[in-house]
Amino acid sequence: MRMYDIIEKKRNGENLSAKEIEFFVNGYTKGDIPDYQVSALLMAIYFQDMTEEERASLTQAMVESGDKIDLSAIEGIKVDKHSTGGVGDTTTLILAPLVASCGVPVAKMSGRGLGHTGGTIDKLESVPGFKLQVKSLFA
To answer: Which of 73, 90, 94, 120 is 20 to 30 A from 126 (CA-CA)?
Structure first.
């Protein structure tokens, strides 16, 4: 399988198979596929869109591409609100406590001391009375 063929297929408006999407995600995360080829595929996807099946395959391939954290010790439904953070970081700061106040465990993957604005954990800890259970994945 070649990345060039996958780009051409999507550029021509054809649907990508789950295997092609998996090849793309795995190749990119391993560093085997260069940025310019990923950019070309993303441009083709932008203009040609993706089917629901392609989106599901992309999501699954992304899930399978990295480390997974076992949250089965937390009973019931749990949620994560993920973002790239940044200066505003306003959605997480409102949504995470709001959802937690409804009794839903929020397994927020966050960092500390990220840049000049601090990480999400730093910001949440600055709220008087707000309690966090912080567990390191690297301990």
So the answer is: 73
pLDDT in tens, 54-101: 999 999 999 899 887 788 888 888 887 776 555 666 777 788 778 888
* pTM exceeding 0.70: no
Q: Which residues are paired to 79 by β-bridges? A: 106
123 φ, ψ to 5°? -70, -45
- Report the alpha-carbon distance of residue 75 to residue 107 in Å, rounded: 12
**Which residues are CB-neighbours of 31 under 8 A, at least 6 positions away?**
none
How many Cα atoms occupy the beta-carbon half-sphere of 132 within 13 Å?
A: 20
